[in-house]
Amino acid sequence: MSLTPGTRLGSYEVAAQIGAGGMGEVYRARDAKLDRHVALKVLPAALAQDPERLARFEREARTLAQLNHPNIGAIYGVEDSTATKALVMELVDGPTLADRIAQAPVPVDEALPIVRQLADALEAAHEQGIIHRDLKPANIKVRPDGTVKVLDFGLAKALDPAGAAAMAGVSQLATITTPAMTQAGVILGTAAYMSPEQARGKPLDRRTDLWAFGCVLYEMLTGHRAFDGETVTDVLGAVLRAEPDWQRLPPETPPAITTLIRRCLRKDARQRLADASTIRLEIDDAIAAPGLENGASSAARVAPTSSGARQISLAAAAALGAAIAVAAATAGVMWQGRAPERPAGTLARVTVPLPSDTTLATGPAIALAPDGSTLAFAATRNGIAELYVRRLAESEPRVIKDSRGAAAPFFSPDSEWVGFFVGAAMKRVSMKTGVMTTIAESALPAAEWGPGDRIINIAEGGALLVIPAAGGAPQRVRLKGLSEAASIRSASWLPGGQAVLVAASFTPTPSGDTAVAVVTLDTGDVKILVERGSNPLYLSTGHVVFVEDGTLKAVGFNPSTRDISGVPVEVLPGVRQQTYTQTAAFSCSATGTCAYIAGGTTRSRTIVMVDRSGTSRPLGVPRNSYAHPRFSPSGDRLAWWIEQRDCELETYDLARGTVERLKPVTDSHYPTWMPDGRSISLTGRRDASPYGLYSVATDGSGKVQTILADSHKLTPNASMSWTPDRVLVFVDKGDLWVLRPGDSEPTVLERTPGREVTPAFSHDGRWLAYASDEGGKVDVYVRPFPGAGEKFVISNGGGTEPVWARSGRELFFRNGDRFMVVDVGTGSAFSAGRPRLMFTMHTQSSLGRTSYDVSPDGQTFVMTDSGEEDRAAEQVMLLQNWFGELKRLTSSTSAGSN
Hints:
Blueprint: E1 8-9, E2 12-21, E3 24-31, E4 36-42, H1 45-48, H2 51-64, E5 75-79, E6 86-90, H3 97-103, H4 108-127, E7 140-142, E8 148-150, H5 155-158, E9 176-177, E10 188-189, H6 196-199, H7 207-222, H8 232-241, H9 255-264, H10 276-288, E11 300-304, E12 310-314, H11 317-320, E13 348-353, E14 359-360, E15 366-368, E16 374-381, E17 384-391, E18 398-399, E19 406-411, E20 417-422, E21 425-430, E22 436-440, E23 447-450, E24 454-459, E25 463-468, E26 475-478, E27 488-493, E28 499-504, E29 515-520, E30 526-530, E31 534-539, E32 543-548, E33 551-558, E34 563-572, E35 586-588, E36 594-596, E37 606-611, E38 616-618, E39 626-631, E40 637-642, E41 648-653, E42 658-662, E43 666-673, E44 679-685, E45 692-697, E46 704-708, E47 720-722, E48 728-732, E49 735-739, E50 747-750, E51 756-761, E52 767-772, E53 779-784, E54 792-793, E55 800-804, E56 810-815, E57 818-826, E58 830-832, E59 836-840, E60 852-854, E61 860-865, E62 875-880, H12 882-889
Antiparallel strand pairs: 1-2, 2-3, 3-4, 4-6, 5-6, 7-8, 9-10, 11-12, 13-62, 14-16, 15-16, 16-17, 17-18, 19-20, 20-21, 21-22, 23-24, 24-25, 25-26, 27-28, 28-29, 29-30, 31-32, 32-33, 33-34, 35-36, 36-62, 37-38, 37-61, 39-40, 40-41, 41-42, 43-44, 44-45, 45-46, 47-48, 48-49, 49-50, 51-52, 52-53, ...
């Protein structure tokens, strides 16, 4: 019903109606108790008359009331003192964004500060686990002082009806609502701003708000909706199948903003931006770009071609500070290898988008050619990693043929060859001819090509390998003072080729922290430069740069004396760095162009339980860097690994909701329940000793037993599996090993030219599943155990992380974010059906570990919810003229000489 001015609801006196829609009618009112004006949202009668729904709404409203942010309209309470129920909200004066857009498109320099505040609001709410679900210009107000306020945050969920009949009296004009809004099979939201998953009635997460953000920003800049039609059906059809008219974006739109909108509006939520903080950073960069910061708009936009390629077209590259030059008008404008002329010291920052449906691989996934002309990167599509190269003068990257399983690219000094790894093989491919050759058959994926056509590579057991690029016997260099238990994480050449920089865990840092040091190759002598740091690189500016806790730092360095000068200075924050290995994604050319993947080291995750339809619910534990969650044999407890430098284990009692911290040995990894369910096996080490296999009792005693002594010198990533009669199969150095009861040493079970990972026994112990790249790509295999016999390929088009159902009738695996299931027979003979998709879920994934497990009844999966910081990045940041910025930032310290 409508309320007339003067109507009293408790202590609130209605002044005037100021809005109406599917979520209720809104009135300006005066709070007589506190003498302030508020907004009253009168709830639909269907909700107000249903006690159960009203009680649930009040619980939701209490949650929403915890949102305290300057860009979010506050909720004060629920007024239920009369028959009419109302939500008491902050009264926000000023026009809605819809009113502003109706007048004219919003200029870029006016739009970006608005959406910057909008991104702030989304980030704050998402951190509290609250999504808006109905973000649109009509729900965004801009106050006279320029402050943006997002209204109705989370009310879509709070107003969730219980059934179709409940909605009989609710207006459908502005907001589409159907039963059970928060469940699968439901459509909720305003049609033009719905995400595809929302339109299909699928479960929602924060990415649906980021889709709506893209719709809002597009509409602000163009004055047109991104998806429109004459009827709701037409609009939803456009959302599901059409692309916005990108030509409508004004010419002055910065290319980074166009790319941002495109990434928000990807149909597949897995490929969409997943974090509002990333949006905020992109907008900050665009606002700070020369031209915009002075109130002028940049002239650049991304124009789609008939093939769907992204061409970055620029009318004023210098105004953007982008590293792009203008090409002939008839051919369009593409990236150039050189930056346009600009004042010395001006930093140029460009976002390099990845091909559609790909994510960057983990580890050192990018490399920039020494001449600055070409970017190489390893990216994964549908679970298969391949090598891509992109000449910066071209509009699209190309895939290197026969590069399946590619990792860790690196360039030759003349930029004519790119090296990379497939499993344990080091390969190189000619940039001119495409000819590919194998350099070495056994190497670890971290290398740099240097003087004398030699490649420096890290080796097991605290050593370096110097490998001829043309192939041949490597020279092994043992580092003095580095125990075989420690490890080298990265190495790079110094001028002259007589010494290298390394990041290694030396004796003084047994916790796993790496120090930056100089190694003389002919003697193995070590000189520590910095006590903490990874991925050191010498630059011609007279600096060594390295990454520490996700921040790039620089210190002056003299390569002649091999001494540092001054103190390390922070020069670039937010470089993606793996928490445990500490390897970072940063590469620099000799021309002063550098590339990196944004992200830092934060890995805030939670544990979620997921049913077979993909619907997830949080377990309720505090966020942490969880990894490798496992169900106990009885299914009543979980175990997981805390991924940090000095790793620890935890167990969780599902019935009581209690957590127990275990720290049986230093640096514990890969918890695996033993068959009796009373102990957990793990990889770990005692202090600075080599890695071994241990077990720890879970009865509260914490008793530790040695399974395999550290004399075997395991690598830390020794994932494992047990048979019911306590036979253990584990991974070490890319092979499968078996340890039987009573044996003191293991024997090799499976060794191929590729890499075998993540073994998993069937419940009866007769069949062993594992993943291997022996066929050129990573697939799931099953072989009989213990004897030899036919080996079966299970996955179709790539697969990792096999997990058996306890029934023995199903085998699960992953293909990227796709969780697959195969019907199998595990009697005296093995049989397997065709893989089929269960659900899609973006979560932590890394070749070599199993990121999920299944309950004994086969109905519930446990996995980590990849906090947005941990999601694989979808773009590379390119910095041109960065050497000038580096010199500016380090000018207050004493830099070394060349």
